[in-house]
């Protein structure tokens, strides 16, 4: 790794796409985006300690803010009319195996990169007083996790993606296993091994693609025409890794444990950053297009099960954190549904849903964490009448609950509306079943809100609760602003996403001709979905 860093600094060359020249952007923004939080994490580990918690926290906050700074020129200079990757940096890492430091962003990854950097700041601020032991290790792990996440969302090289993807497991495992609750070790080990087993299957798919192309370049992988069985096996390998991270039913069982026994910060990071959905749309759909169509009925079925079954499970939960875990599984079912209906508004809606629900779920988890920090319990039965002692907190929870339901004007509405419209265009009855999420999410969210927030003060513990402090108010205020900005004016987001969705849809609709495919007996999978609609994406509002 040290030799790679030296080579990177000595021979760094950026190769921007022809639409975006180096004259406009003289800094390696994506490298800074990845390495600033990683280096900041190392600095925190070296300079921080429990004996100097204040210094440790401020170093972590400075590192998180510094990691966000490259996002500003990225968003400001991003061109919505360009469908290719922008801000591309391409430096040869291993010529023997054709592995490169190859990074770039398009309309899909741009907002995920921005959300990652913003989430890091949010978690540092949210954990300011709640983490009192091994403070340096906690903040250092989160900062390095942020850098690895940025590597996942910007990688254009398969091996670089795999290294970044796997690197995220280490800090997450440590965070869950060290700062979690009573059963934290079980939750951490379960999360690690379920994720790692899926990643091994993904690695097998990647190595097969390398054997066919002698390169780890994702663009070359997408252009390679594969036969029936190679596509099937590659798709299943990617599904094993990314289905766990979505999480899809029935690969979801680790998430309730992490929500219940992991630290709030880890749950927020997992909830706000959608590695699984991103992996499916970046790898499975364009690299194995015919297999994606072949498995579309299965994926749609699993998505509908996740939407309905997880919502029903959420209705019977007695712990707020487990309820929000099943809510996440249900809402992410809409993401996979949108991806596999293979029309423009559905896939664009899936991406918007990843962004918007990332904000909403993060906000709901932060609110739950604030209550837990005050009372050391997340049991719904232990609350009641919180609005009487925490009126400002109750107002924020109301807004986030409405966004969780999908109320128009909030971020939760935009993605859900687009996915449901795409599902209805694909098949009316599939769209109708998916729309049941509107009723079910309202049922379990309002039931939780009523039990916790409204009514008379339930007990002495609730009577002693203190309302939000200035730090907490600013934190939830920033989250509320995001919820409203995305909900009231989604156009800047969808304008950036739409051209990239068009490219993704074209790649996932690519047919395999016998003359182009690898020898496999001449059989080819048949598309399970109709051709994409010619209409451009329309956003509500």
Automatic annotation (TrEMBL):
InterPro entries on file: NADH_Q_OxRdtase_chainM/4, NADH_UbQ_OxRdtase, ND/Mrp_TM
Transmembrane segments: 25-45, 57-76, 108-128, 135-153, 159-179, 191-211, 231-255, 267-288, 294-316, 323-342, 354-372, 393-414, 426-447, 468-488
Region (Disordered): 507-541
Topology in the lipid bilayer: Multi-pass membrane protein
Start and end residues of each NADH:quinone oxidoreductase/Mrp antiporter transmembrane domain: 157-437
Keyword Transcription: no
UniProt-annotated location(s): Endomembrane system; Membrane
Biased composition (Low complexity): 527-541
GO MF annotation terms: NADH dehydrogenase (ubiquinone) activity; NADH dehydrogenase activity; ubiquinone binding
Single GO BP term: electron transport coupled proton transport
Keyword Transmembrane helix: yes
Keywords: Membrane, Transmembrane, Transmembrane helix
Pfam families, sorted: Proton_antipo_M (PF00361)
GO annotation, cellular component aspect: endomembrane system; membrane
Annotated family: Belongs to the complex I subunit 4 family.
PANTHER family, per the entry: NADH-UBIQUINONE OXIDOREDUCTASE CHAIN 4 (PTHR43507:SF1)
Protein name: NADH dehydrogenase subunit M
Organism: Paraburkholderia bryophila
């Amino acid at each position: 790794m040290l030799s790679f860093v030296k080579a990177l600094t000595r021979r760094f060359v950026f190769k921007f796409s022809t639409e975006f020249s180096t004259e406009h952007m003289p800094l390696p923004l994506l490298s800074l985006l990845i390495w600033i939080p990683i280096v900041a994490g190392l600095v925190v580990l070296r300079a921080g300690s429990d004996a100097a918690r204040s210094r440790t926290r401020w170093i972590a906050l400075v590192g998180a803010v510094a990691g966000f700074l490259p996002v500003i020129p990225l968003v400001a200079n991003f061109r919505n009319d360009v469908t290719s990757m922008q801000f591309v940096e391409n430096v040869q890492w291993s010529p023997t195996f054709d592995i490169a430091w190859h990074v770039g962003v398009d309309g899909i990854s741009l907002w995920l990169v921005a959300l990652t950097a913003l989430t890091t700041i949010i978690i540092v601020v949210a954990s300011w007083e709640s983490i009192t032991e091994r403070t340096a290790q906690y903040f250092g792990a989160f900062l390095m996790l942020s850098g690895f996440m940025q590597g996942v969302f910007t990688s254009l090289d398969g091996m670089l993606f795999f290294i970044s993807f796997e690197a995220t497991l280490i800090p997450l495992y440590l965070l869950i296993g060290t700062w979690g609750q009573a059963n934290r070790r079980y939750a951490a080990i379960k999360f690690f091994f379920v994720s790692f087993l899926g990643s091994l299957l993904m690695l097998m798919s990647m190595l097969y693609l390398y054997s066919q192309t002698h390169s780890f370049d994702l663009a070359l992988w997408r252009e390679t025409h594969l036969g029936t069985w190679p596509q099937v096996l590659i798709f299943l390998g990617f599904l094993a890794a990314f289905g766990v991270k979505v999480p899809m039913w029935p690969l979801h069982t680790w998430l309730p444990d992490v929500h219940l026994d992991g630290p709030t910060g880890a749950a927020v990071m997992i909830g706000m950053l959608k590695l699984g959905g991103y992996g499916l749309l970046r790898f499975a759909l364009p690299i194995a297009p015919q297999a994606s169509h072949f498995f579309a009925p299965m994926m749609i079925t699993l998505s509908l099960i996740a939407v309905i079954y997880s919502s029903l499970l959420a209705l019977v939960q007695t712990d707020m954190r487990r309820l929000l875990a099943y809510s996440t599984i249900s809402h992410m079912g809409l993401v996979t549904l949108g991806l596999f209906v293979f029309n423009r508004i559905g896939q664009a809606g899936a991406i918007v849903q990843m962004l918007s629900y990332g904000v909403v779920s993060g906000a709901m988890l932060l609110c739950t964490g604030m209550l837990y920090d005050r009372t050391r319990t997340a049991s719904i039965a232990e609350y009641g009448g919180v609005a009487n002692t925490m009126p400002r907190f109750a107002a924020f929870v109301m807004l986030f609950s409405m966004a969780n339901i999908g109320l128009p004007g909030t971020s939760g509405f935009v993605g859900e509306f687009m996915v449901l419209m795409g599902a209805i265009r694909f098949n009316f009855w599939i769209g109708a079943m998916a729309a049941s999420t509107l009723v079910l999410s309202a049922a379990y969210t309002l039931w939780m809100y009523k039990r916790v927030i409204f009514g008379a003060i339930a007990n002495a513990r609730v009577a002693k609760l203190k309302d939000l402090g200035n730090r907490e108010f600013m934190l939830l205020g920033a989250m509320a602003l995001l919820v409203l900005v995305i909900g009231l004016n989604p156009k800047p987001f969808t304008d950036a996403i739409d051209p990239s969705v068009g490219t993704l849809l074209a790649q996932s609709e690519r047919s395999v001709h016998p003359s182009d495919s690898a020898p496999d007996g001449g059989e080819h999978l048949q598309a399970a979905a109709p051709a994409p609609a010619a209409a451009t994406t329309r956003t509500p509002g």
